[in-house]
Amino acid sequence: MRQKITIGDLSKSSGVKVVTIRYYEQAGLLPRPPRTEGNYRSYSPEHLQTLQFIRRLRDLGFTLEQVRDLLRLASDRNRACDDVDRLTCEHLLTVEAKIRDLQNLASELRRLSRFCQGGVQIANCRIIEALSRK
């Protein structure tokens, strides 16, 4: 007999909120579980494994469409991993661009913070003045 897991236990075990689990089911990312006679969702360990995979991908910034693609690719265990490599390389480029943007932002914020004289009224705040330009 397969172990059955309630949605609350699935949420606790995966760290994914119940509403998000329902959303992933609706979006077709997580297979809809069978229902008990009382009409409760009855998840399996495979659901938990899939949900943990989805959560890891989301934590790494993959889009829902990329998650969908990776789930599809991961389900074909005998397939060559070229498409997985391509998809993750594309994501890496996006991540590296975001890192550059964040580094530029940090540099700009450091530059602006040097203007702060502290204790002045907002009307005379050099940071607000600098942020208002451009």
- H and E string: HHHHHH
Count of individual beta strands:
0
The CATH topology of the largest domain comes to Multidrug-efflux Transporter Regulator, Chain: A, Domain 2
* Strand residues, percent: under 5%
How many angstroms separate the termini?
A: 65 Å
What would the average pLDDT be, to the nearest integer?
Answer: 91
Give start-end ranges of low-pLDDT stretches. Answer: none
In the CATH scheme, the class of the largest domain would be: Mainly Alpha
**Helix content estimate:** 55-70%
Structural class: mainly alpha
**How many structural domains are formed by the residues?**
2
- Gross morphology: elongated
| CA-based gyration radius | 23 Å
Please work out how many helical segments DSSP would assign: 6
CATH-derived architecture of the largest domain = Orthogonal Bundle
- Describe the biggest sheet? none
